[in-house]
Write a structure and sequence with these properties.
Layout: H1 16-24, H2 31-46, E1 90-95, E2 98-103, H3 107-111, E3 115-118, H4 119-125, H5 127-133, H6 144-153, E4 157-162, E5 172-178, E6 183-185, E7 188-193, E8 198-207, E9 214-225, E10 230-238, E11 242-253, E12 258-265, E13 270-279, E14 285-294, E15 299-308, E16 314-323, E17 328-337, E18 345-354, E19 360-369, E20 375-384, H7 387-394, H8 400-416, H9 422-433
Helix pairs in contact: 2-6, 4-5, 7-8
């Protein structure tokens, strides 16, 4: 028996009346966008909440999916938390759904056709381009209801377009921050790289104010790499300790394109992250990476899909979790090789470092192969800290907290070293280290 749909009118602050206000505030945007919002709002109302019978929500804490009491903030916070700084091309900063700061694309890149702007602005100036890539491949890993909620209420979003043969050395940066109790945000990012283009986009999701503030974040990304393009995407979230967060990423790689996506999970009470990678042309490659530090009673739920549509495509997935206290992680990944995708080479691995006897890690890797000439494998490991390594550090006077930090840093380095940008590598290392200074 399916659960009843949770209507918007049952969610204080996200009611039909509030949606009508949200829509009227964006009457200046293209008609197709407003219609998409209306359709999404109706879909959100119609879709049920997940139940224990939903395989895509296996092991998840369904009682924690409480959307009641959240509202849309209208004013930015007086103080904006900042991420670790590093050299960048341009930046957009959102606070409580409002754009509060931006740096523009350098003139030489703008002259080549590079676009980096808030989503609302892109919809006005480049509506056809946005429409061509907006949710081109819908969510299919279980969070369709929350994706619909994002589309209905999204306002704080970013759009990056890099034309053919343009290479951008330094990252583009987007920062989303939430400050206040019972507030919600719905960020949406679209990245489009033309043939043989190269670029990096880094997103930070940060809470301001007290760590106990109850918040809701439901984000969506559409990442597209055309023929021969090279896209690096990094998403780092450090929400409050009482945040319910959803993030759904769609990755598309065409012929000979390479996409590296790395997601860092640190904050939140209960966080679900879905990543769907589609390899559409021969020679396409997807590198799917994630790092998680789970502490206290946090739950991190990660669902992935690697879909090989064309022959001679490759993908590699490596998700690493470090678990402390009574934290819980869930990894469920599937590799699908379609009938025409001969000569596929796909790999999937989930590794869990158990730093507590009471932490809990679930791992469900899987394969669905419909071609007969492929190389696919998957695996999962869960293990405690090497006792000899721990003894070595402790015997040299290093305290237990610093010992854990050093061992987790070593455990994570296999993933971080895949980044070409050393400044970004250092910034993420520092952000991870901050989890051990509490």
């Amino acid at each position: 028996m399916s659960a009843p749909a949770l209507s918007a009118d049952a969610v204080s602050g996200l009611s039909s009346a509030r949606f009508a206000t949200h829509l009227s505030q964006r009457a200046y945007l293209p008609a197709w966008w407003l219609e998409a919002k209306k359709d999404a709002f109706n879909q959100f109302n119609a879709l049920p909440l997940p139940t224990r019978n939903d395989e895509t929500w296996r092991f998840s804490n369904l009682k924690g999916l409480d959307l009641s009491g959240f509202s849309l903030p209208e004013d930015p916070a007086s103080q904006i938390p900042n991420h670790t700084r590093f050299p960048q091309t341009a930046e957009l900063v959102f606070s409580n759904r409002q754009l509060v700061a931006r740096s523009t694309v350098p003139a030489e890149l703008a002259a080549k056709g590079v676009i980096f702007s808030p989503l609302d602005e892109a919809l006005q100036q480049h509506g056809d381009l946005v429409r061509a890539y907006f949710q081109k491949h819908p969510a299919k890993l279980g969070s369709e209801k929350f994706v619909a909620l994002n589309t209905a209420f999204t306002a704080a979003g970013a759009f990056l377009y890099v034309p053919a043969d343009v290479e951008v050395a330094l990252p583009f940066v987007v920062q989303h921050t939430l400050t206040g109790d019972n507030v919600a945000a719905f960020p949406h990012t679209i990245v489009v790289l033309g043939p043989r283009a190269k670029a990096t986009l880094v997103e930070f999701f940060i809470s301001g104010g007290a760590s106990t503030e109850r918040q809701l974040a439901a984000g969506v990304n559409d990442l597209h790499a055309a023929e021969g393009a090279q896209l690096t995407y990094v998403g780092a979230q450090h929400w409050s300790a009482n945040t319910l967060a959803f993030q759904v990423n769609s990755i598309v790689a065409e012929r000979d394109a390479r996409v590296l996506s790395l997601n860092l999970h640190l904050g939140g009470r209960q966080c679900r992250h879905e990543s769907n990678s589609r390899l559409l042309g021969p020679g396409a490659h997807s590198e799917m990476l994630a790092l998680t530090v789970a502490t206290g009673a946090q739950e991190f739920d990660q669902r992935t899909l690697q879909t090989h549509v064309a022959p001679h495509t490759t993908s590699n997935l490596l998700y690493k979790n470090a678990l402390l206290d009574t934290a819980k992680t869930i990894f469920s990944g599937l590799i699908i090789v379609e009938p025409d995708a001969q000569k596929t080479d796909a790999y999937q691995k989930n590794r869990n470092l158990m730093l507590s006897d009471t932490a809990e890690a679930h791992s469900l890797p899987g394969l669905e192969i419909q071609a007969n000439d492929v190389k696919c494998s998957h695996g999962s490991t869960s293990a405690r800290i090497d006792a000899e390594q721990e003894f070595y550090l402790r015997a040299r006077g290093i305290n237990p907290v610093e010992t854990r930090r050093l061992l987790v840093a070593a455990f994570f380095e296999e993933v971080l070293e895949k980044l070409d940008n050393e400044d970004l590598h250092v910034a993420l290392t520092a952000l991870i280290a901050s989890q051990f200074k509490k």
